[in-house]
Amino acid sequence: MYNEQVEKLIELALADGELTEKEKQVLFKKAEAEGIDLDEFEMVLDAKLFEKNQAKKDSPPVSAPKSDKYGDVKKCPSCGSIVQSFSGKCSDCGYEFRDIQSDATINKLFEALMEADNIPKDQFREIHTGDMGGILGGIMGNSYAALDKQKNEERLKKHEELHKEKIHSRKVQIITSFPIPNTKEPLLEFLTLGISKATPIKKGFFSKKTIAEEEHNALVPAWKSKIDQVVFKAKMSLKDDKSLLAEIENMVSQLSSKK
Q1: Closest CA to 178 of 143, 216, 145, 225
Q2: In the beta sheet, which residues pair with residue 151?
Q3: Mind telling me which InterPro entries this protein's record contains (predicted)?
Q4: Which residues neighbour 48 within 8 Å (Cβ) at sequence distance 6 or greater?
């Protein structure tokens, strides 16, 4: 109806559904400067203000989404009692909390580890000794070429080693920082996985390990550290389940016997 500046001022003035005397003065001053009929302008303002307030009345009240949480504490889906953090079962009705996404948790870990293998390599640049030219250059050319080849092979080998170290460091970081489940079943699955990964692969003196086996053994310390985290978490979240804690201790002791 009016130009963009006037419409913008009206929108800002009516944003809170009210129109103060100060806001009216500013709007009327702007309207007068634009040559707008003030009686008409006042009628338009009243109409817009009415529409704004009517829209607020007609809009349905926004209700909070239904949740199984009370603050940061979950409620038992069986009896509705408030559950303390890191509890493996309800203290009132004995309901065990199960995590249907336990497989998804482990899959996410494997996906993150596989992504680490795709870390791009830094660009490798070969070095070349400058061409000396002339008779001396012809005599020394082959020697320089052989020296360049040797140096580049050494540099390429170092380049590959640095890239492997970068991948290894990233995997260690992923393992050590990956979140541990709070509930019984996924925690046990995670622990079982950790124990298998923390068990070093051993071969006879004359048997050579594959690249995959070497990589497995390189990550054993990280997985052992993760198992310590899992055990600590279990003692916190499942402290009331004595039989489960005993089972966990037994699983971990078997790992110790495999060293």
Answers
A1: 225
A2: none
A3: TerB-like
A4: 10, 14
pTM over 0.70: no
Where exactly are the structural domains of the chain? Answer: 4-58, 64-97, 100-257
Distance CA 92, CA 83 (A): 9
The secondary structure of residue 126, as a DSSP letter, is: -
What is the token pair recorded at 95?
Answer: 């309901």
Find the radius of gyration of the CA atoms of the chain. 35
* Per-residue pLDDT reduced to its tens digit, 206-237: 788 888 899 999 999 999 999 999 888 888 87
HEC per residue, 142-201: HHHHHHHHHHHHHHHHHHHHHHHHHHHHHHHHHHHHCCCCCCHHHHHHHHHHHHHHHCCC
Q: Which residues pair with 69 in a beta bridge?
A: 74
